[in-house]
Amino acid sequence: MSKPFGETDWRAMSRPQLDAGLNNGVAVAGSADIGAGWVKRSEDIKAKHPDHLDLSYGPRERNRFDFLKAADGGPTLVLIHGGYWQMRSKDFFTCFAAGPMAHGINVAVVGYTLAPEATLDEIVAELHASVDAVVAQSPALGADPARIVVSGWSAGGHLTATTLTHPAVKGAWRSRASTISSRSGIPISTRS
Questions:
Q1: Where does residue 39 fall: left (phi above 0), alpha (psi -120 to 50 degrees), or beta otherwise?
Q2: Taking the model in full, what pTM does it have?
Q3: Are 108 and 76 in contact (CB under 8 A)?
Q4: In angstroms, how far is CA 114 from the centroid of its own chain?
Q5: Which of 17, 98, 122, 172 has its CA 20 to 30 A from that of 188?
Q6: Contact 179, 173 (CB under 8 A)
Q7: Mean pLDDT for the stretch of residues 96-118
Q8: pLDDT tens profile 36-81
Q9: Angle in degrees, 0-180, between the axes of helices 155-163 and 120-141, rounded to the nearest 10
């Protein structure tokens, strides 16, 4: 019987080989230019929505979120950035708020302390605290605290799954318009 994923056995790989296999910056041609474009588009969005940036949800430096308002009383997507749990920031991924906002969905782009400064358990706790803060501040921000959906990119996708146990989270959104979970009537599927 052949191995379903080829002949490479990840258990026999060295740490540098494993790290290289997860490093999209090396694996994707032009990734630096792609990232620079994301940063520029993120800065443009924040310039258009400057009212609620760097709101605090905890004591650490990266315990901040940007709230980008699309609709009074609308649902809010909590967007969790990627970066292998060790790099990037909310400011790198703000550009991805444009799609949900075009559909009347407010977006809270959340930052968190990176590893190894924080353990994975601490990062997960920070994400739960960020949801608490988004819910608590939603009325003052003009959003509906009862309609919170989470989504994330890469490591943020993993962290999205860890927030599904939070009682305020009504569902999750993942790429390709598939629903991970939905406990409300919030329309969380879009076309890809």
A1: alpha
A2: 0.81
A3: yes
A4: 13
A5: 122
A6: yes
A7: 97
A8: 999 999 999 999 999 999 999 999 999 999 999 999 999 999 999 9
A9: 70
Pull the structure tokens for residue 5.
Answer: 């994923």
**Per-residue pLDDT reduced to its tens digit, 148-182:** 999 999 899 999 999 999 999 988 865 543 333 34
Note whether 49 and 108 are within 8 A (CB). no
Cα separations in angstroms, 119 against 19, 34, 64, 107, 116: 18, 29, 18, 26, 6
| C-alpha to C-alpha distance for 131 and 112, rounded to whole angstroms | 12
Cβ–Cβ < 8 Å for 109, 66: yes
Q: Tell me, what amino acid is at 176?
A: R
Residues in the chain: 192
Reduce the secondary structure of the chain to three states and give it as a string: CCCCCCCCCHHHCCHHHHHHHCCHHHHCCCHHHHHHHHHHHHHHHHHHCCCCCCEECCCCCCCEEEEECCCCCEEEEEEECCCCCCCCCHHHHHHHHHHHHHCCCEEEEECCCCCCCCCHHHHHHHHHHHHHHHHHHHHHHCEEEEEEEEEECCHHHHHHHHHCCCCCEEEEECHHHCEEEECCCCCCCCCC
